[in-house]
Predict the structure.
Amino acid sequence: MWTKEHRDTYKRDNDRYPSDLTDEEWARLEPLIPPPKLGGRPRKTDMRSAMNAILYLLRTGCPWRYLPKGDFPPRSTVYNIFRKFQREGVWEAIWAELHVALRERMGREASPTAAVIDSQSLKSAEKGGGQDNAVGYDAGKKVKGRKLHALVDTEGLPLRVVVHSAGIQDRDGAARVLDKIRNRFPWLELVWADGGYNAHQVKDAVAKIPVLRMEIVKRTDDMKGFVVLPRRWVVERTFSWFGRNRRLAKDYENLADTLAAFVSIASIQLALRRLARQ
């Protein structure tokens, strides 16, 4: 239930836009922004304002050309920063740092030992796209678009999110999510999943990772209607967190990598808000 205490915790009345970074959030984020390259031109762009513009676009879902003029740096500048950070892996690096900080704030070990895997199909807007960015049809959910295939820890914080065609079934996409996962999370031992992952493709992928095992959480025959299943609800909640951002409510991107970048930014925003208010 949404109480007055909740409203006091989450209100952001002092900001120009609700998506703007507070002073506490910017203090967390600023050290993680890469400095200008040595020998290059001095940076003239206000990086806090540029980040506010990207968060505004994520939250509202507006096109780049619709960024309010005068409130943010020129949209071409903001776009170039977004794309540069995407190419250089900055968004993923920032999220990796904040993920560790947030887990430690929660009293957890920095590297998780258990995780939950699942996918969400997003309907795609009209777009082009080459072989690597093709959309597909998810016959089970009757959605033409792309999938967010997510592995999250037991707190629902994303460990890895892979974007691929919705036509790829979960049992086949799982190998992409689990590929080289041990390099990033060395202590991961257990992954919970639904019945869609009970297939030899998944077993083969898990067998390549030492120590890792997968446990299928199934519905029992006597369950009717909607039932909250153990462990599986955690990743569903993560997808609902992503869905708060209109840019992630539908797949508007021509490039799959762009959609993945916005998922990382949504995770960054989530972590910043939690770290700033605790």
Remarks:
- The two ends are 20 Å apart (CA to CA).
- The mean pLDDT is 90.
- The CA atoms of residues 53 and 68 lie 9 Å apart.
